[in-house]
């Protein structure tokens, strides 16, 4: 048993789906444009610096899910996939996943972005398991609150361990983890095969120091 784990945003796709979803809502006039865009950009800068207050961000990011009906959300997300995700799709990411799949590996995405935003992307990529931040639902409606531990930084390690506890055949699996972000350093240090993918400056420095492979899924070569 072997496990190939992937971050999603800026790793398997050429952008950040969480930030892009917020921008998409602004463009569709589904949120208070000026206020929402400023906060969305500010939180994204915090994330890039490794300084994000995940709970403050989720309070902000999950609010629109509670304000719109499921029908509205599903329709908007279909447009989001067609107009935004298609533009940041990375064929080389699909090829990498395919190599692991042909080797018989279990394919997992583990992402801080909430499940509503990322589930259709993971489905299109054909992964076996998606671990994502879970937005709370009551009677089929989002509440605007997070359910359980956010899948962020050390939370990714915790969520993976919880999954392994329920899937004991993978407890001793050899593991790969691919990520672009210094925020994923805790999980990168946990696996046998950490790989930096188009890494940010801080992760690139860590990869160079630790001798981790660095690859690109965006370059032509």
Q: How would you characterize the overall build of this protein?
A:
The protein is an alpha/beta fold. The chain has 2 domains: 2-15 and 90-215, HAD superfamily/HAD-like (Rossmann fold), CATH 3.40.50.1000; 17-86, SG protein - dephosphorylation function (de novo design (two linked rop proteins)), CATH 1.20.1440.100. 47% of the residues lie in helices and 20% in strands. The protein has 10 helices and 7 strands. It has helices at residues 17-27, 33-48, 54-61, 63-67, 70-83, 91-102, 115-125, 154-166, 185-188, 201-210, and strands spanning 2-6, 106-114, 129-138, 141-147, 174-179, 193-197, 214-215. Strands 4-3-2-1-5-6-7 form a 7-stranded mixed beta sheet. A hairpin with a 2-residue loop joins strand 3 and strand 4 (141-147). Helix 1 runs antiparallel to helix 2. The longest helix has 16 residues, at 33-48. It is globular. The mean pLDDT is 96.
